[in-house]
Amino acid sequence: MGTIVGWGSKDVRPDKFLNEMHVPIMSNDYCDRIFTDLGYTYRKHSLICAGFANRGIVPGDCGGPLQVEKDGVFYLVGITMSSFVAHTFRNFIPDVYIKVSSYCDFISSATHNEVHCLPNEYSGRELEQKCGERFNKLHFERYLENCMIITDAVTGATKNVCRESVPHK
Q1: Could you tell me which residues come within 8 angstroms of residue 123 by beta carbon, excluding any fewer than 6 positions away?
Q2: Most buried one in 51, 64, 81, 105, CB count within 10 A?
Q3: d(CA 78, CA 51)
């Protein structure tokens, strides 16, 4: 589980209060399957995805932290990059974060070794080891139940369409 923090708001103006939310960090395999299915390339060496079912970032949160707490200390594992563009995908597609560990050498060099990555930083494998394939399969099945590919009969172009809202079970 990760923690995101931001000033974003669903309104046009930024929120007056700093918001905090706990979001599940999804496995690389799950994210790769979802984004590949939508026709996107998911670069798992440099990205992390987290959040689902309307639990994630909103406009104004870009650049904010995705943190993991361990023994009372928060560690930065991701930097907010993007919420999935289409509102209809919001219930199914996790948000995307830049994976900090991919830039450890640069960060260390730019800060004259004042900041460095921990050797056992969260890698995404923790979720897969704890929850296994069943966790990924359940989320992917939920996505497939609520999204479909529509093919334009004239042009042959395809697009994914998801139901607007899915009730929590």
Answers
A1: 101
A2: 51
A3: 13
> Which tens digits make up the pLDDT trace of 105-132?
888 888 888 877 766 554 445 544 444 4
Domain 2-162 -> CATH class = mainly beta
**Statement: the pTM of the whole predicted model exceeds 0.70:** no
Cα(162)–Cα(165) distance, integer angstroms: 9
Residue 68 in tokens: 């993991």
58-86 b/e (C-beta count within 10 Å ≥ 16 → b): bebbeebbbbbeeeeeeeebbbbbebbee
Rounded to 10 deg, the angle between the 125-146 and 28-37 helix axes is 30
Domain spans in the chain, listed from the N-terminal domain onward: 2-162
User: pLDDT tens digits for 122-163?
Assistant: 444 554 444 445 545 555 565 555 555 566 667 776 665 555
